[in-house]
Design brief:
By secondary structure, the protein is an all-alpha fold. Helices cover 75% and strands 0% of the residues. The chain has helices at 4-14, 16-30, 32-64, 69-85, 91-101, 105-115, 121-131, 136-147, 151-171, 201-235, 238-252, 259-268, 270-278, 285-298, 301-311, 319-342, 358-367, 370-395.
Length: 396
């Protein structure tokens, strides 16, 4: 009889996931009307924002994986990536594409590196900690211009997001520092990938499109599921309970308790939480911005699970990513606070939350156009590889 409580505890622990899934299914039926609206909202968000922003980049990264550009770029960047981040030069490609295109492109590229034998397990985990980030199109365009109505806020958030991920990358250079696994990177390491040429261009293009669509559909599933989960939590009174429990803490810190719901939502799903945070009327707009910086740095559980589903196809551990994103959220918070208080240009407390400038909106929308950025990056890659090969020929 003494072991009965322990037996019950172990039984619950063993069946915790089935229990959660059963509760989730019951809640789908109970709150069917609200869940239907949440599903439509999630689907609309996926079609209007996720697909146009990510699909071209997924196709581009798949196509670049069938060329020698990654290895050549890695040889060029190795002199910077190895001493700063303790990763091979190809990590520069994952970092650049991850910061340009946004979640979860960096994780997909790092996983492909590991599966193709281009880096060790420890190096892949170091890369994963800082190469999977939110892109400028989302931070400046969606958060800065659409949500805050101020592109300068978007620029501030992107700067602190970028600097914080670099700091995290530097700190994680010591992750599994004594790892003895060695790997020799050469052209044979990607022999499993067909190098693109005119004879197989159609096959490789179709395979790249199919792989990219599969990934985007997976992301869409996560967006819809977490939209429904947030709806269920809201209707169950979860957010109200959190609000009641944490209100005294927030009031003692001089922060409006209205931010509790937005933070809780943002920890679950990034976009919904940011939208709530940006729309809270507050005389100190810097509070809204600092909290948004944390949410952007952390990314949310939805993106965490997206990354987990991607890296599960390799031997990479998700621990470094989870710790890195928590650290990046805290550093982003701190840097944003410093920037707001040090640089007068970033002091927004007297700026109305909704003050859109049509001319600025048009200019930034053009500059941040996804296709322009991807085309420019691919052009730069080809140029660097051409110069590198030319340099090799001159030496020989």
């Amino acid at each position: 009889m003494k072991h009965k409580p322990r037996f019950i505890f172990l039984s619950i622990k063993k069946n915790i996931l089935p229990i959660i899934f059963v509760i989730f299914t019951i809640c789908l039926v109970i709150f069917s009307k609200q869940n239907l609206q949440a599903t439509k909202s999630g689907l609309q968000l996926w079609i209007n924002s996720v697909v146009p922003a990510l699909l071209p980049f997924f196709i581009a990264t798949e196509l670049l994986g069938h060329t020698n550009i990654i290895l050549n770029l890695g040889n060029i960047l190795n002199r910077f990536m190895r001493p700063i981040f303790n990763v091979p030069g190809i990590g520069g490609y994952a970092f650049i594409m991850g910061i340009i295109s946004g979640y979860p492109v960096g994780a997909k590229i790092v996983t492909k590196f590991r599966n193709d034998g281009l880096c060790t397990k420890a190096e892949a985990e170091r890369l994963l900690a800082f190469t999977n980030n939110s892109g400028p199109l989302f931070i400046i365009g969606t958060v800065g211009i659409s949500m805050f109505g101020n592109p300068e806020i978007g620029i501030l958030l992107f700067l602190t997001h970028l600097i914080s991920c670099v700091i995290v990358g530097f700190l994680f250079r010591f992750w599994k520092y004594n790892d003895n696994e060695k790997i020799s990177i050469n052209k044979n390491t990607i022999s499993s990938n067909k190098l693109v040429c005119f004879s197989n261009l159609g096959e490789i293009l179709s395979d790249s499109i199919i792989n990219a669509i599969n990934t985007v559909v997976m992301i869409g599933g996560f967006v819809i599921v977490f939209s429904v989960i947030i709806s269920i939590l809201n209707n169950c009174g979860f957010f109200n309970t959190i609000f009641f429990l944490l209100s005294p803490v927030f009031k003692s810190l001089g922060i409006s308790p209205n931010f509790i719901t937005s933070i809780a939502s943002g920890i679950c799903e990034l976009t919904n939480g940011l939208n709530l945070c940006c729309n809270i009327v507050n005389k100190n707009l810097s509070t809204n911005i600092i909290i948004s910086a944390f949410l952007l740095g952390f990314g949310g559980i939805s993106i965490l699970l997206q990354v987990f589903s991607i890296v599960s196809k390799s031997d990479i551990s998700i621990k470094s990513y989870f710790l890195g994103k928590i650290l990046q959220g805290i550093i982003s918070c701190f840097l944003t606070y410093l920037f707001i208080n040090i640089f007068p240009i970033f002091h927004f407390d007297i700026t109305p939350i909704v003050s859109q400038n049509v001319n600025k909106l048009a200019n930034y929308s053009y500059l941040l156009n996804t296709y322009n950025i991807s085309f420019l990056f691919i052009l730069i890659c080809f140029s660097l590889c051409f110069l590198f090969k030319r340099k090799q020929k001159i030496k020989s």
